[in-house]
Design goal:
globular, alpha+beta, Diaminopimelate Epimerase, Chain A, domain 1
């Protein structure tokens, strides 16, 4: 049965090419679920890599709680480019330059650095096998071999609120990510699947990156993967703790801060179009 709802404001954005749909649900009772997320993605003008659903905050000191969906309807605890787009939406028209938002990965601090440039503190990486998570303990999460992929070097596996595997490769192997991405995402070691990154270190302060994103496939950009990559590169001695990460959609400036080990990411966002949606239109499709 179709239930009438009030229109929900939305912004269709991108963070250096990472397609983001921001949906403001703070004043509406309707709850977005996996089927509704897939229905939204099926409309070409709304298609996204990640859907960022802004909900009322759980704590008074934050601006909002953000629920994150991949375009296959699965949930994600963290999305750096999406969080920067949320910061744009929440800070637009305000004098404030900073904001805190809640996610399943924790509270994230965001700052406006320009009209379309935002920085987000993505928190500290986690390396313990059960925190990534992996299916079983391994001797070294910084060097994990993948059976069935003899061409690939060992990967660094870690969590940035979601699971990542980072392979440091040459340009020829990087070009094969579309061929291997789906299989690596579903590799048996990852009970919750994983984001797969193929990184080429071009200089100690410059990394070229391609990402197969869990639940979205090959993407123009992935912020949490850029976070995982700078951490993995610094730990392996491939780079310092700061570098520019160049993705097909653009450049992210990354820093793995000493002291608290938080990873900071800065880059551009773009508003493509905005409007309102009656979510009942999409709920009706899921009930058919």
């Amino acid at each position: 049965m179709r239930t009438q709802t009030s229109p929900a404001p939305y912004l269709r954005m991108n963070g250096i090419g990472n397609a983001i749909l921001v949906l403001d649900q703070r004043r509406l009772p309707a709850k977005v679920d996996a089927a509704m997320a897939r229905a939204l993605h099926a409309r070409p003008s709304l298609a996204f890599d990640q859907l960022m659903v802004i909900e009322p905050p759980h704590h008074a000191e934050t601006a909002a709680f953000v629920e994150i969906f991949n375009n296959d309807g699965s949930r994600s605890a963290a999305c750096g480019n999406g969080t920067r787009c949320v910061a744009f939406a929440l800070l637009r028209g305000q004098e404030a330059t900073g904001i805190s938002v809640e996610t399943e990965a924790g509270v994230l601090e965001c700052w406006r650095e320009g009209v379309q440039r935002f920085r987000v503190d993505m928190g500290a990486p986690r390396f313990a096998w059960q925190d990534i998570p992996l299916r079983q303990p391994v001797p070294d999460t910084g060097s994990l071999r993948f059976e069935g992929f003899p061409e690939l070097p060992a990967a660094a596996v870690l969590s940035m609120g979601n699971p990542h595997a980072v392979f440091f490769v040459d340009a020829a192997l990087q070009a094969r990510l579309p061929e291997w991405g789906a299989a690596l995402e579903h590799y048996p070691m990852f009970p919750e699947r994983a984001n797969i990154s193929f990184a080429v270190v071009e200089a100690p302060d410059r990394i070229r990156l391609r990402v197969w994103e869990r639940g979205a496939g090959l993407t123009l950009a992935c912020g949490s993967a850029a976070c995982a990559t700078i951490v993995a590169a610094a730990r392996a001695g491939h780079s310092g703790r700061a570098a520019s990460v160049h993705l097909p959609g653009g450049v992210l400036d990354m820093a793995w801060r000493a002291g608290d080990d938080h990873v900071l990411m800065a880059g551009a966002v773009e508003l493509e179009h905005e409007g309102t949606l009656d979510l009942a239109d999409f709920a009706a499709k899921t009930d058919a």
